[in-house]
Amino acid sequence: MYQLREYQTNLIAQIIKSMHSGHRHIIVQSPPRTGKTVVMAEIARRTTLKNNRVMFIIHRKEVLEQAELTFKKQDVNLNLATMGMVQTLTRKVDKLPIPNLILIDEGHHALAKSYQNILNKFSKTFVLFFTATPVRTGRLQLDQVADDIILGQSIKELTENGYLAPFRYFESPNDFDASKLKRSSTGDYTNKSMDEAMSSTIYGHIVKQYQRIAQGMQAVVYTYSIESAINVAKEFNEAGIAAAEVDGKTEASSRDRIVKQFRKQELRVLVNVNLFTEGIDLPNVDCVIMARPTTSLALYLQFSMRCLNPRPGKTAIIIDHANNFQKFGYPDDDRDWKQAIITQDKGKHKATTENTVQIVQCDYCFAVIRPSAVKDGKCPYCGNPVKVIIPKRVADIDLIEARRNKIDEIINDNVMQNVADKKPNELHSMKELKAYAKLHDYKPGWVYFQGKMKGLIKK
Ligand SMILES: [Zn+2]
After folding, report:
1. DSSP assignments along 320-361, one per residue
2. For residue 36, how far is its CA from the centre of ligand 1 (angstroms)?
3. Do the strands 368-369 and 25-29 form a parallel or antiparallel pair, or are they unpaired?
4. 407 C-alpha to center of ligand 1: Å?
5. Is 345 part of any domain?
6. pTM for the complete prediction?
7. 312 CA distance to ligand 1 middle (Å)
8. Ligand 1 centre from 385 Cα, in Å?
9. I need a labelling partner for 186 at 20 to 30 A (CA). Which of 89, 242, 389, 425 fits?
10. 314 shares its domain with 444
């Protein structure tokens, strides 16, 4: 059996509390790589222990086998469990035994017809929607099907507690031309438009950037088409770096062989097309290379966090060739999930999720860094002098200029740099309060009020 981690036990306690207070359809948000399947297996074990029936629904066939092993290992009474892919279960829903509890993996898909068909059939059953990203691309959100949301530990907290590895993020500019990207009916970019948007120099850039900042690290590359994946693998092999390509059409036997070689470090780089997302076990990835733009936050987090399994002393490297940082920021940025699950009125635009944190990009190594990490005007990773470059997501020229000046100021002002990572209760002088207010665009009144509260201003 798996020994549950403290945050996993806490999550289960919160779920039980929510059920006791009358909720029946509960979203359980928990970041990727935090063992959601183990949590679901433990809940299933407790359910079947009381002779109640459980149903477990997954979205992709690749993860079913893994989940079945986890449930078995956790001593779930499998005679009382129905496990399967949503497409399979929805077809035979009339013949399925009525469950007391339904567990949905990747629950952000639950508004799709295939899920609704099952949920409508068992309308009196408790349902738990497990997901790292409780948000949809359309207008309708998960409040349509759920009456509560439980938030797991944040990625930042998990990293602080050693459950995830810290990372450095690098974004290579100009490998994709965003203006050529077009969305398909499913909301993500079409393969054709990604092909057109992709620069012909990307393959060379991918290998060069790996050699420059991640040489020797076990790396997984995400691409969007079999052809581009084959090209990336070829380019690595030609540079003397052992690489292989796997995709949905690769035979299971050769896929298993390639994964084994990667685990034994006989292969340095594994290139894949949408294969290594949730559920497939690949523990020793230290570097992720994204050569695939996406509009999906779920995919972005699954890609970028693939390399965050911790090991003492490890710092993971995320290399983004597809401008995903522009859209989503860092994987561990704070996101307001309680707000995200609320369906907006028709005609109203969704509150912008644009990241307004100020970022500096090193134009030598392409690291994207917070201004407070810049020491003596130098990039903390490569040591080259940092010229301030603002990510392109800010379209307004005046705004870019204003931000550039402000970031310059932050980098050149020691007091401002010192307070950048602090909270107001950690500020102990008027100088620090003033710098903090400047950094966060607070009004002078705030400085006066805080100063008075702290006894720094005499009457
Ligand atoms: Zn640098």
Report:
1. ESS-HHHHH--TTS---HHHHTSPPPTTPPPPP-------EE
2. 35
3. unpaired
4. 16
5. no
6. 0.82
7. 24
8. 8
9. 89
10. no
- Ligand 1 geometric centre to CA of 307 (Å): 21
321 and 299 together in one domain: yes
- Measured in Å, residue 268 CA sits from the centre of ligand 1 at 24
Question: Are residues 427 and 283 located together in one domain of the fold?
Answer: no
- Specify if 363 maps to a domain: no
CA distance between the termini of the chain: 64
The boundaries of the domain holding residue 285 are 167-333
Select from 121, 154, 187 the last residue of a domain. Answer: 154
Is a pLDDT exceeding 90 seen at residue 399? no
Residue 366 has a CB neighbour count (10 Å cut-off) of 23
363 CA to centre of ligand 1 in angstroms: 7
**Residue 76 pLDDT exceeds 90:** yes
pLDDT tens across 319-376, in order? Answer: 999 999 988 999 999 899 999 999 887 665 554 444 455 788 888 899 999 888 888 8
Residue entry with tokens 């086998």: 65
Q: What percent of the chain shows pLDDT beyond 70?
A: 92
If one counts the domains in the chain, the total is: 3
Residue 346 lies in a domain: no
Structure tokens at 140: 């309708």
Residues 403 and 325 in one domain: no
Cα 320 to middle of ligand 1, angstroms: 15
For ligand 1, the distance from its centroid to the CA atom of residue 416, given in whole angstroms, is: 21
Each residue of 154-211: pLDDT tens digit?
A: 999 999 999 999 999 999 888 998 889 999 887 889 999 998 998 888 999 999 999 9
